[in-house]
Amino acid sequence: MSHLALLGGTPVMKADDYKARMFHWPIVNDAMRKAQLDVLEAGNMSGTDISKRFEQEFAKWNGTKYALTHNTGTASLTAAMYGVGLGPGDELICTSVTYWASCTGALSLGASVVFCDIDPENSQMDPASFEAHITPRTKAVMVVHYEAHPADMDPIMAIAKKHGIKVIEDVSHAQGGHYKGRMLGTFGDAAGMSLMSGKSFAIGEGGMMLTNDPEVYRRAIRFGHYDRISEVYAKEEYAATNIVPVGGLKNRMHQVSAAIGLEQLKKYPAEVEEITKAMTYFWDGVADVKGIHKIFPKWENSDKAGWYASHFRYDPEAFGGISNVTFAKALCAECAGKGFYAGCNFPLHLSSFFYDFDVYGHGRPTAGLNLPPGTDVRALTGELPVSAHINSLVMGEPWFKHYEPEYIDMYIEAVHKVAEYHTELLDSNEAQEFQGGMALTHRKTK
Ligand SMILES: *Cc1c(COP(=O)(O)O)cnc(C)c1O
Hints:
By secondary structure, the protein is of the alpha/beta class. The chain has a domain at 30-263: Type I PLP-dependent aspartate aminotransferase-like (Major domain) (Aspartate Aminotransferase, domain 2, 3-Layer(aba) Sandwich). 33% of the residues lie in helices and 12% in strands. The protein contains 15 helices and 13 strands. It has helices at 30-41, 49-62, 73-83, 105-108, 127-132, 153-163, 214-224, 229-232, 235-238, 255-285, 324-334, 353-356, 377-381, 385-389, 405-420, and strands at residues 66-70, 91-95, 112-116, 138-144, 166-170, 178-179, 182-183, 190-194, 207-211, 292-294, 311-314, 341-342, 394-396. A seven-stranded mixed β-sheet has the order 1-9-8-5-4-2-3, with helices on both faces. The longest helix has 31 residues, at 255-285. It is globular. The structure holds pyridoxal-5'-phosphate.
């Protein structure tokens, strides 16, 4: 008779122990309900007055001079790329293990994407790999603060400075996070981030671009905010284009999102505090389990803020070679079927799209469109051994939104139980065929 619920044993949690409210996100209050109805009833969805207020408050909170609302995080990141001057023939360096929107916009600007590797300890950009991928054409680096954890900004900024490379931060997973006491999104020349429903700062579809550089700000407005061009360019400056957005894009945020964002800003710090308390309690509770390693920032005054898609390292060797897929299934079977998942994002450098696909019909691959003839785009990235294997070595953890120790205790017990009886899984061990997903939110704890 097996102990583990996956093999017919009694689970730690019964189905009705499960509390959806422990994971539900975002938390909606009356002020949010009223704010979004006010926008609808005033027919003010496509204005910019509320979005501008949201920008001012967001910039104040995040500590940058400018914040510019966008309709998606993807748009905010592409605008940041255009803002810093990324263009034809330039290379953008980005980590391979991230969501596609961190880098794909570069192709539409005529630039190329070169991927670098990550640090196996924390899944963040490996500064040495970043430096090794620099060429004379490297114009910018996209630094993703991945899975709520800050990237190692000190060496990254030093390398970028040495080589004259623009730095863009993707803060989609880490709104409100800090690296050595300084807020994420304030290190680079620009930052972009998603504020869509699955992220920790969730307002619906939406994105925010941040910068301290007035020229980046102006360029981003000219790129995709036609109705605001005359606010930042003199008439003679835009005479040639009138107020056509030069990117051919309309990036304006829906004001229901902006109104929700203003309310979200007021309560987000308190929510982050409670999530942190809950997650810290969980990790204190499983600290003694060998083979399960929490991924916490190793620097002073650094944090995981909203804990979006937080992952831990899973060491199959410590569990007789049992894959993270099987281990995660065993954990979920103890916890009403939810809470843990194997792997993270699909490593983008393994997608042939970034080397071979002809998007626009130029008759040659878009990825290397404007590079010197004969350039081997694949070779610019090369092998990225950590990125290629990270999916079998990490696992997503339950994302508790409330500090309720008795409830979290059941998950702590489940981790201890599966670790203790893991040998029962040897006969049903599934190979790690899972190659990561395109989006983390589709698999997050429900
Ligand atoms: C979600 C996400 C984006 C894109 O944001 P959207 O709002 O979905 O367009 C960009 N980068 C990362 C790392 C993301 O997770």
